[in-house]
Amino acid sequence: MDFQQIFDKPAQTQATAPGRVNLLGEHTDYNDGFVLPTAIPQSTTVQLGFSSEHQHHFYSENLNEQVTILDINHTPSGFASYIFGCLEVLQKAGYTIPSLCVYVQSSVPMGSGLSSSAALEVATLRAVRQLLDLPIDDVEIAQLAQQAEIHYAGVQCGIMDQMASSLADTEHILFLDTRTLERRVMLLPDNTEVLVIDSGVPRTLASSGYNQRRAECEEAARSLGVKALRDITDPKVTEKLPEPLRRRARHVITENNRVLEVLQGVSSQRFGELMNASHASLRDDYEVSVPALDTLVELLQKTPGVFGARLTGAGFGGACVALVAAGEATRIATHVLEQYNQAGYNGRILVPSLELSNAA
Ligand code: ADP
Ligand code: MG
After folding, report:
1. pLDDT digit string (tens) for 134-172?
2. Which of 68, 134, 152, 324 is the right S-S partner for 129, CB 3.0 to 4.6 Å?
3. Closest Cα partner for 279 from 289, 267, 265, 270?
4. Is the ipTM of this complex over 0.90?
């Protein structure tokens, strides 16, 4: 199926936006903290045309599902909420949005922690910007996308995913200060590459666990008398907090420190150690890992050629990311998946080898 077959006319314009993987800095973006994502080769394409009726029509090729928006005062559920949300935030920003036909097609796996949701939002906003020649820049696109996800899809997300999809490329990591939106384009240590493996375990509990962690962080910040946990750099300060707030805050503070250490320039060994420490912190202090992710990370960590590995994304299932020696990712993935899947899991490679460094 294509646009023409679904909507009986050709598309007027189209735009694409990538998924992302986060190398370091997990659960920090809603604490005004620091993150290190990169774009991945998988992306989402949105095609647009004007609708001749007074109704929006959205079609997802991935879901083979079409939704007609009959009443714009009623937010749709499911995938349509992301697209509808993007159109609504543009309206609220003062732009007049006509009735549209929207066709979505994506190679970003949904719900695996590679941010298919941000890719959908950013591609939608880019396509509308192009169609209507709107004067909005890439940072504004990310901010509008985040508003759409929070207010229409009902996910209380930070700004990382949308900033990564809107501003990152697949050749660099993007250091982002989520408070000031200051950013820096960087490379990984020389002679390394990145591997992403799906644990095969769906992210059940992800939204409830996510909202609970968010609330715990806000409470911890309040108790410590700061605007956000980003304002604390010494993890010892958390000792006055009751459990589990103490450990939740300690994760965020140490995780921010790990990202800032990378900013100073680190070796591949050190970057790997920081990823391993991030996983331990997410597992023990933040408690967002599950046995499958721990198993996969341990298998990765003990495989020669791997500098470090951690769960990536919100946790409770989803994917793991590893920093490995250049040229080794495919061999490592095959070796690790053989053992992992023998243990009864259903893992698979999501991104085989992402080159984000110079060869030495
Ligand atoms: P992630 O962003 O990590 O992939 P989310 O749960 O945040 O996971 O977002 C996944 C949701 O985004 C899907 O359930 C669906 O509603 C929507 N979505 C993303 N990409 C598409 C697509 N190509 N077609 C339809 N819906 C999509
Ligand atoms: Mg998402």
Report:
1. 999 999 999 999 999 999 999 889 999 999 999 999 999
2. 134
3. 289
4. yes
